[in-house]
Records
---
Amino acid sequence: MTPNTLIAAAAALQRLDGVAGVILFKGKNTVHKQMPFSDGRALDLQTTIGQMMDGYRQVRRKMRQVYLEFDGGTLLILVQEEAMLVLLLTARADADLVASAAGVLLNDHALLLAQLSADESAAPAKTADGIEELVVTSPRRLQEMSEKAEPVVNNWGQIRKLIEGILGKVMGRAQASNLIDRTLEDTQVGDPYRLNATQVRKLAVSVIDHIPNTTKRRQLLTELESQLEDMNL
Amino acid sequence: MEPDPGLIKLDTASGRDTVSGGEPGAAQRFASEVKYVSYYAQRLAETLGMRQLTLGIVEDREGQTAFHSSSTGWHGAVSSNRRGLWQVRESLVRS
């Protein structure tokens, strides 16, 4: 078996009824990704799931799967050692059938997954004659639909981490996270990923504005401005 | 075959958590699992453009922890059995 057969198998999961997206990754190595939203959002999803599973690994829990049903859809995460298969399901999906198919995929490719690097994906595979091999795994229509569905997409995940880092200088991690959540609720921005650059900047400033101490607030705002500029915002 | 695990409730009022039902070990594990998963689920919901987690089933090699949101917090169970997702979901929604 080759990585291409693994990619093809992961892509085939999307043909099951109610499967809206699939990501297969190991550490920072994304083997396959086909989600109905931007790459930035998919990367944030991967990062958060990776952190969640790292926590379990630290307490030596051998996770098999995590099923998370939200108000607007379901995430099904299957775990095999460091490899993770994430499926985004709609209400039409038969979760047991999808979990079973995904489990079979992981078992069938266990050896290959174990051999895969957890570092960021290497350059595309080249054939013996030096020509890059083109692997088509994504239906074009779905890509077009995703692009149409998401007119504005920002890197809110990274900006949130930046704000948490800055707030971390004056408060604990949970307190910082709660403050951001509260500001999101108060400002009623809805989905922060859909804000444009100016709105994101305004939102970040409004979080820091909650710091009561004037001197500290000014210092943090200066730092925020500088870091946002580094991110070209 | 083991009997169905007892229902455990994690109620939150005025920022204080109260766990009731189930065996002490299971209740403690249930509360920890719900809090840990809820924290990450909130971040995942934000990324997905959704609002909140309504149901979770966490499975490791030793069993399953399942929980469903209620008006006062969460209710669910810890089990050493491995049951189908649909079966667990249905029993939680009905309870």
---
Amino acid sequence: MSDFIALWPGAASAYSREVDLLIGAFTVLIVALSAPVFILIVVFATKYRRGKPANRRHALDRNVWMEVSWTLAPFLLLIGFYVWSTHLFAGLYHPPAEALEIDVVAKQWMWKFRHPEGQGEINELHVPAGEPVRLVMASQDVVHSLFVPALRLKQDVVPGRYTSMWFTADTTGTYRLACAEFCGADHSVMGGSVVVMEPADYARWLEETGTDRSLAAEGAVLFRQRGCSGCHEQASTVHAPDLAGLYMRPVPLEGGGTVIADAQYLRDSILLPQAQIAAGYPPIMPTFANVLDEEEVLKLVAYIKSLKGGKERQ
Amino acid sequence: MTPEERPERENLADTGLSETPAERVSYLRAGHTLKSWLLTTDHKRIAILYLISITFFFFVGGVAAGLVRLDLLTPAGDLLSNEGYNRAFTLHGVIMVWFFLIPSIPNTFGNFLVPLMIGARDLAFPRLNLLSWYIFMLAGLFTLAVLILGGVDTGWTFYTPLSSMFAHGQVVLAATAVFIAGFSSILTGLNVIVTVHKLRCPGMTWGRLPLFVWSIYATSLILVLATPVLSITLALIAAERLFGLGVFDPALGGDPLLYQHLFWFYSHPAVYIMVLPALGVVSELVAAAARKPIFGYAFVAGSSMAIAILGFFVWGHHMFVSGQSMYASAVFSFLSIAVAIPSGIKVYNWTATLYKGHISLDPPFLFAMAFIGLFVVGGLTGLILAMLAVDVHVHDTYFVVAHFHYIMVGGAVSAFFGALHFWWPKMFGRNYSLVWGRLSALLIFLGFNLTFFPQFLLGYLGMPRRYHVYPPEFQVLHVLSSAGAGILGLAYLMPFAYLLYALRYGPPAGDNPWGVTGLEWQTRSPPPKHNFETVPVVDGPPYDYHVEMEGHGDG
């Protein structure tokens, strides 16, 4: 591609090349649908120009079959593309179970990334090529949107809920990353880069970056510092739910219904504890909304996830 | 069609409707004082009041757009600060959407033409009509107050919690302005609906209504049904910002996606508020250009109603990457594709109308052709955006910016200028220079494409919208776009020169300068105060042009 003018974005995953194929094929279709209109308007305007002699006999003013056919034929073609595109889109909602999970916290105006072993980085995201990566994203303030054009992916990061996005990058290189949802004064500089590395290089990078503790271990410290352990330890005298093995287990709720204890539920239970109360427990937990920020909550969630059923907590 | 609902015939027969001879000559002569304009209940004068007001806002919004485009000449955005840039594009959006596009065709040409086209003396509620204008102007004053007090920096979409808890600008004042403008929309919509139901002249059945009236009617339904939702939503933003009422901010227990649902439940139909009247104008212009009955009248009229109804069920396509459910997205994607059906009908039927016509290339018709071209590009790129997997990539990029400008500026504004050039001789009784008219149609078309086509490329390359600072590799396309904006800006100014010149020096137009059908062309130019001296009676289909048949059946 010339340096003077960019006309097509680079692609860094099999998915992004599929999207390119889809839009290429779709462009062919819409050109085919619209070309007759453009050509005929010019032809008619020339041929039937006012005052110009031409055969104007038997001009129709309606023909229902013609109208129905030029309505339905394009629509059926569109349905085919609808199925194709919706199929691609649905794949975005089914991340592989073994995907490498990286936490993302967006705030005005920066991106913070935390790798599972605790390595943190700002506005730069290192990922291994050829391995599925899943980003679990939270916002500290307003709605942001993580956009990586080379992956043809974008996902809003919404305060109050976790959103996620997954991809398998296959081409090493450095790609642009941007905030796509208007988020205030410095929206346009809330960007950075995604660095796709060979898995061995990624492992080396993780090692060089280093960290004292994994995310879960930092969560364990917080668990004690913020007093969670006072009630949720097995030895505690307060009647509070046991957290061991809780992650992804169904939780019966007071007043009926159950909910799967996913990351969103764990987060809400810490920040909005009165919203969904586990059956059989008194609603005595205070909110930690003013105590913890989203990064700390993600650490606690990582810690709770790490607690395996029945085992000693440490 | 019961005669007793009509004005009393015996009063009309003696032409006693006009109180003075001046009124009988022209609505423009019926009073020359400022008071006779500011307290008028004549729908034609109110239309002129709207025309002047929205032209003013078009310039204010245009200056903001000019600032934005000028600033984007360099990747670093050297003209404005980040904050200043955000305020410029927010102002551009708020003013252009609520103070130009939404009132543009419905409140000027709708006001002027609907009573004339259906053979009525005025709208059903003339004083309510004047009140709508005053409400609109009050809203306009609030907007100017926002501008003077430093502007607002949320984007025209007012997304929460940015708008309710974080933004520093005049959010509450801006929301109040839009809230007030909403009442003007609702009252105008109501007025048109009642007028079309109750005031059609004898013989003007639903199947004989001009297509412009059909589309203004469909638009009015949307105005009445969708606008209240926006009003309530904006009131909730103000309540959250002023009193900390937790509706949208998660820190207060609210849900930001709820805001997006409510906002787009109004704002997607609002797109059709802007474009349906344009479609109606173009149907009139195409039939007039070809001097032929419109091809498939029933399908074209029905498609306006179909677009109005379907338009209420596609709002979720603005939220494909917002975190809404995958299944909701799949349904909204499908429904959005379905909107292509009625839109496609219109375009194909216009093309078929031109077949074997007597096509004139006078300015109004060039604007109509420009509209069709730009609307087709805008509509088909809308289909691209409706495709989920593609939207994930181009959502919130310049691709979207280009798409909706093709619809709302390329489409709606071209139709607005088309209408202005078509009905100007009727409104003011003077002809303007056709040469200058053709030239400005051409320049608007070229300038528009140069401005916005590069933005499709920018969007697919991954240039997010609302970016003050951008990567240097996008500069060439941005410079092209800004150059186009310069041409477009000048081209938009041209009509004001020769149309205003024609107002004083143009030759008299005559009652029917284009030689077309329609009740509005059967009265004088400019029309008398009460439109018609006798109640017209319609006894034939609309667009009843002579068609060469040669003993053939009715086709």
